[in-house]
Amino acid sequence: MSDHPPLRHCALLVIDMQRDFLDPRGYVAQSGVDVNRLRVTIEPVQRLLAAARSLGVRVIHTREGHRPELTDLTSFKRQRTEGSGAAIGSRGPLGRLLVRGEYGHGILDEVAPHPAEVVIDKPGFGAFYATDLELLLHAGGITHLTLAGVTTDICVHSTLREAVDRGFYCTTVSDACAAGDPQVHAAMLKCIAGEGNILGQVRDASTMIAQWRAAAHACGLV
C-alpha cells in the first residue's frame, strides 16, 4: 500500500475532544487530573481539522458518554468512577458528568464539528464498541485512519487497537493526542511504534498534514 493513499480513502478520527475531558470544570478535572496536560492537543487538532477539510479528508468525531438513565453504564465503570470523586451521572458544573445531551458532553467550540461531519456517540473507551463506526468506514471506502484526541492511553489507544484488528491502516498523531501523565503518553507512542510499527505509524501534525498535501498533489487536487 502506498504511503500516500488517495485521500478519498482517508479519514481523520478526532476522539473525545469534549468539555468533560478538556474543560477545567468537566468530568476529568473533577476527578483530579490536570486538564492543561490534555488541552495541548487543541491547537494541533485545529490544524489537522483545517487541513483535512480543505483537502477533502473525511472527518469523524467521537464523544464518550451515557444515556441519561445510565442503562448503558456497566457495573465496573460505575464502581470505578464512584471512587474517583467524579461519579458518572453525578451533577457537576457543566451538568451531569459524561451524560449525553449535557453541556459537558459536547465537543469544545474550538474543534467543533461542521454540520456535515459524522459524530459517533460511544458508551465505552473504543470507538468501535457498540457503535456503527465500522459500517460507516466500510460504506465510505475508508482504509486509512488518522487518530487524534484524548486520551492517548485510553480512548485513543483502545480505538487504535480495534482499528488495526479490523484491517485499517492507522497513523497516530503524536502532538494531537495526550494523556494525563506525559510519561504514559510517551510510553503509548513507543508501544505503537514498537516491533516495526505494530500498531501503525506515529507522526506529528505537521508531518501528517504534509503527507495529505503530497497525496493531494499526486492526484492533481492541489
Overview in brief:
The protein contains 9 helices and 8 strands. The protein has helices spanning 19-22, 27-30, 36-39, 42-55, 75-82, 133-139, 152-165, 182-197, 205-218, and strands spanning 10-15, 58-64, 91-92, 95-96, 118-122, 144-150, 169-178, 201-203.
- How do the strands line up in the largest sheet? 5-2-1-6-7-8
Number of helices: 9
CATH domain fold name: Rossmann fold
N-C termini distance: 22 Å
What would CATH call the architecture?
3-Layer(aba) Sandwich
Q: Rounded to an integer, what's the Rg over CA atoms? A: 17 Å
- Average pLDDT confidence is 96
CATH superfamily: Isochorismatase-like
Annotation, overall tally of beta strands = 8
CATH class: Alpha Beta
Strand content: 15-25%
Largest sheet, in brief, is: 6 strands, parallel
Level of helix content? Answer: 25-40%
What class, by secondary structure content?
A: alpha/beta
Low-pLDDT residue intervals, each spanning 5 or more residues: none
Total discrete domains: 1
Approximate shape: globular
Q: From N to C, what is the helix and strand string?
A: EHHHHEHEEEHEHEHEH
Structure in words:
The protein has a single domain, classed as 3-Layer(aba) Sandwich (Rossmann fold). Helix content is 38%, strand content 19%. It has helices spanning 19-22, 27-30, 36-39, 42-55, 75-82, 133-139, 152-165, 182-197, 205-218; strands at 10-15, 58-64, 91-92, 95-96, 118-122, 144-150, 169-178, 201-203. Helix 8 (182-197) links the parallel strand 7 (169-178) and strand 8. Helix 4 packs parallel to helix 9. It starts with 9 loop residues before the first strand and ends with a helix. The relative contact order is 0.20. The mean pLDDT is 96.
